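*** Residues and shapes ***
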Amino acid sequence: MDSEKVIARDNNYVLHTYNRNPIVLEKGHGVHAYGPEGQNYLDFTSGIGVNSLGYCDLEWAEAVSRQAHKLQHTSNLYYTAPCSKLAKALCRRTGMSKVFFGNSGAEANEGAIKAARKYSHDRYGDGRSTVITLVNSFHGRTLATLTATGQAGFHQYFGPFNEGFAYAPAGDIDTLTKLVDEHTCAIMLELVQGEGGVVALDPLFVQEVRSLCDEKDLCLIVDEVQTGVGRTGTFLACEQYNLRPDIVTLAKGLGGGLPIGAVLVNDKIAAGMGPGTHGSTFGGNPVVCAGANVVLGRLDERFLAAVREHGAQLRAGLEKLPHVTEVSGLGLMLGVQFEDGIQAADVLAACRERGLLVLTAKTRLRLLPPLVVTAHDIERALVILDEVLCGMDPLRP
């Protein structure tokens, strides 16, 4: 495989909806990805938080391979053991009642919106369907989840956008409360706004939202597509907020590298979602679920303690770097704000040239290393970041 040929072919035939990095990845192991000409990258993106166990974890790969050799797909007209095993593990792990499986975070959030509106319709009738989300939130790229996303930049080109959404600033319970009226059915939160800058919500605000939902009988939806499955140091970020939502969505790291989304609901929401209310041809795919079962089996308390330890190590190291003004986020989901004149995109490009892959989120650098990252990996990444930042002049035009 030749990198130039791969990139040229991709540019010729793949729709240009992505600003790709000018590198080709051929294989990977653990925290390292490799290019066709021998390039070695320390990957602190994990496929945007997807490769929770790193690249090609042996137990995960063998489980996926075994299942692919037995039964690759059935549809949801039939039962499979990997799907029911995963459902049981997720419900017991989260305390939720039932789960619906889809293929992505956007699909999971679509399912959550439908489930909340169905509950409200069954209980109150038509006209109670508005979902309130937060400014700077991100919930997906389907038309409904784009509309749910509280960023004006996403509300272009594809209109008309769906009705039934409103937006409140994060942390402003007074404005949020004023938005609630007879048409409101749910409030939807990311506990750490990932694409919005890796900003964690204030715990008091979150509890005030829960109380408001209880008072008005609104469904509280928590989008844990990026924060869930151990990313923040607990299985759900909800645990760190002492929060019991009505609906939780998962995706990204759940499959360990294969596409999956999950909508977890409590008893009151589950009661309204009967046959025909939702569906997905590929949801609960046995190969994907086999991989996800390995991920869940690995995330015991010892594993999560290591995530918290390494998250604290990475945060402390980042805070000491030159030109860094703030480090935000939780666990191994961190954002780095720089002094004026230092652009996150420039830092990303310079890191890539030195063999470190990172992400951006608005004006911040975003770090989402695999959950299996080691102390040595973190120190190596910090050395590269230090080299990059020491070579940058914030006053340079």
